[in-house]
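Why run this: before we spend reagent on co-expression, it is cheaper to look at a predicted model of the complex and decide which construct boundaries make sense. The entries below are exactly what would go into the expression plan.
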Amino acid sequence: MIYTEKVMEHFANPQNVGELPDANGIGEVGNAKCGDIMKIYLKIEDGVIVDVRFKTFGCGAAIATSSVSTELIKGKRIEDALSLSNKTVVDALGGLPSAKLHCSVLAEQAVKAAVADYYKRQGIDPELFVGKCDDSEHHCCGEGENCG
Amino acid sequence: MEKSSKAVYLDNAATTRISDTVFEGVLPYLKERYGNPSSVYSLGQESARAIEKSRERLASALNCTPGEIYFTGGGSESNNWAIRSCGASHIITSEFEHHAVLHVCENLEKHTGVKTTYLPVYANGIIKIEDLEKALHENPSTGLVTIMFANNEIGTIQPIAEIGRLISDWNKKNRKCRFHTDAVQAVGNVPIDVQAMNIDMLSLSGHKFHGMKGAGALYVRKGVKLPPFILGGAQERGSRAGTENVAGIVALGIAVEEAVGNLEEKNALLLKKRERIYNEVMKIERTRLNGDLEKRLSNNLNFSFEGIEGEALLLNLDLMGIAASSGSACTSGSLDPSHVLLALGLPHEIAHGSLRISMSRYTTDDEITHLLEVLPPIVAKLRAMSPVWENINV
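The model came back. C-alpha cells follow.
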C-alpha cells in the first residue's frame, strides 16, 4: 500500500485543523471501533461556507481526505459542498489505495452531515437538500473494504 | 513537517539487519561457493559441509542433536509443517498465536476433521497452565499442543517449561501428545533448551536475529514422526525437498551462534534501554502498556495511546525517521485491529492506537533519545485533532 505525494503532503501538513467556535453546522461520522471518526465544522453565511475546520481520529488517508475536503469546500456555496463526491476527493489526492477508498466516502459523508446540521439549526428539514442522513448508521468498512 | 534525515530502526520484531559477521560469512556463498550441496564434486561438498556446520551451531544453541534440525524456508513454513503433518485430530493452541499457526489450525478445522481448542490469554498476555490442563482433560485425544514461546506483538513469554513438563507427565499415562512451540520471536532473545523444556518441535527464523530472510528451521525431537511437508529430492534426509538456501542457512548458523553467545550481556543492556523508554513513554497521559512488563522479551514494548490511531502515529514517526509498528486495522490489512490486542480484552478503539517498539543489540541510546523527543509531541498533535480524544479528555 503506497500513498501518493499529495496524500502525504496533506497528512504531514493538514489544512484547516481544529474546531470552529462559531460554527453553525457540525457533522460527525464514523465510529471509533472501526478506527475512524471525522468531524467537520462549518461557518455558513448567506449560503456560502466562509470557514471550515475538521477533527479526525483515523489513519493517514482519513486525515488527508478530511484536509483536502475542507480545502475543496472552503469559500464554496452550500450546493457545491453538497455535490462534493468521494471521487472528487480521491482525484484531488492523486488517488488512494483501494483499501482506503472508504475514507473518501467518509469525508463526503462528513461534509453532508455538517450541512444537514446547518439546515436543522435553521429549522429546515435537511432531507429536502441532503437526502437521508442517518447519524447512527455505522459506516464501518463497506464490502470488501478495509476499515481504517 | 519536514522529513527527518535520521534513521531509527525500532521494528526488530518485524525483521533485523544482517550482522557484520553474518554478512562476511555469507559472501563466499553468494560468489564463488555456489555449488549445489547434493553434488558429489568438491564445490558441491563444500556447500554441504557449510550446511552441516550450521546444523551443528543450531543444535548447540537449542541443546539438541544436529540430526534433529531441519532447515526450512522460514518460521511460517516450519509452523505449517509441524501442525499440518503431525497427524493430530485435536489441537490445543492459544488465541493470540501468529497467523502462521492460527490460520493453519482454522484451515485444518475447515477442511479436515481436526478440532482445535483456543486457550485464552488474559490481560497480561500469558496463558494459564490450569487452562491447558483443563483442555487436555476435556480432550484426552489431543495430539498436539502448540503455544508460542514469545508473542510477536507484545513480547510476553509463555510458561514453556511448565507446559513441557505438564505434557510430559500427561504422556506418562500412555498418551501421545506432542508439544510444538513457535519460537520465532524467542530464539536469540531468551535462553532455550529443548530437552530441559520438553519441547518436541520448535520453529525458528533466521532474519529475526540478524540472519537472512528466507531461511529458518524446525527442530523435531528424535522419535517424533513427522511426515515430509515438501516432496521431491532427498534434501534434509528426505523430509524437506528442494535445493537448499545455502547462503541463508550459513547466515542462520552464524547468527544463532552470535545471538546465543552474548545473550545475558545483551539482555542486560536491552533491559536498561527498555526501562528508559517505558518510564518516559508512560508519562504521556492515558497511555497503557499492553502485556506483562516482567514476563516479556527484553527488546519489546507495546503501548496504547487513547484517542489516536496507530497508522497515523506510524506515519508521523516515519516523517521523523523512526520505523516502528502498530496493531491498528490499517496496518494489519484487515477489518479488525490486531487479534493479539483483542485477545487481551482491549476494546477496538484502544487496540487501534497501539505502538510496538522492538529493539535489537544494535539499538543505540541516541536512537532512543530521538524517539523520546519526538513521540510525545506527535501523540499530542494527533490528540489535538482527534474528536475521540475530545470526548475522553473532558
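Residues 42-62 of chain B form the longest helix (21 residues). Chain B has two domains: 8-17+262-392, 33-261. Bring this page to Monday's planning discussion.
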